[in-house]
């Protein structure tokens, strides 16, 4: 079934009514979740709209085997998304295809919890406004992003004020940057492949494989970052502390590996108390600030190999 109009669902009763309208199976319990399948959401030139928006539900819901296409113009006020969720729990998104054109593919915010996103295909386009993101998680926790493929867009995965979430075994390519962890804590970034990032002239961040800013207690382990067009990993911000970067492989054609400090309009800021161990870098070295040697003595770097 093809829908060319936005679908907005609010609260559990609204989800049940919509399920009855479209003939979706299930009652919303853990044992018998509501299942949305074989739907084609196709929006063209609908500024700021979402293919599907889900608000304030905690019924168990599976979205599987669907296609989401949202074609917007490259202006910030026109950006929409494939799926937008706020105040939602217990949703699984699997085996779908997302085609955002200057749009977020999945936008999750407003204290969503227990969201599983796995085995999906995401395609997007790099926009001038630095906004098009494939998955954007804001102010939510326990979001699990596993084994997805991302191709194109300004950002693969953005964790902003996210807690206790996992980004595992995803393939991310042709991005402005791969994974962003900003103001987020106790997350795991494991086993992802990031390659062929692109850098836009006005940004020191775009082109970076993994960007960590003002975040603590995150684990970045066993990732493979290849041929990025900026830094393999950027750790910045005075509140970036106690992050553990372990057993990753970095290959770069830009001679950059890790950057502990960054210049801002408000002066130079430092991150500290981070741990880097047993990482391997090919064709790169430990990158230090070109303005001033960063306070690397506050971070622990041990048993790394840079060639």
What does this structure look like?
The longest helix is centred in the N-terminal third of the chain and has 12 residues, at 11-22. Strands 1-4-7-10-13-16-19-22-25-28-33-35 form a twelve-stranded parallel β-sheet, with no helix packed on it. Strands 3-6-9-12-15-18-21-24-27-32-34 form an eleven-stranded parallel β-sheet, with no helix packed on it. With 307 residues, it is mainly beta. Helix content is 4%, strand content 47%. Residues 260-269 and 287-297 have low confidence and may be disordered. It is globular. The chain folds into two domains: 1-153; 176-307. β30 and β31 form a beta hairpin. The N and C termini lie far apart (54 Å). The chain has one helix and 35 strands.
Please give a quick description of this structure:
It contains one helix and 35 strands. The chain has 307 residues and is mainly β.
- The neighbouring-strand order within the major sheet is 1-4-7-10-13-16-19-22-25-28-33-35
Total number of domains: 2
Low-confidence stretches at least 5 residues in length (pLDDT < 50)? 260-269, 287-297
Largest sheet: 12 strands, parallel
- What oligomeric arrangement do these chains adopt? single chain
**Radius of gyration computed on alpha carbons:** 20 Å
Give the class from helix and strand content and strand pairing. Answer: mainly beta
Question: What helical percentage do the residues reach?
Answer: under 10%
Tally of helical runs? 1
The best one-word shape is globular
Overall strand count: 35
Tell me the span between the first and last alpha carbons. Answer: 54 Å
The pLDDT mean sits at 82
Approximate strand percentage? over 45%
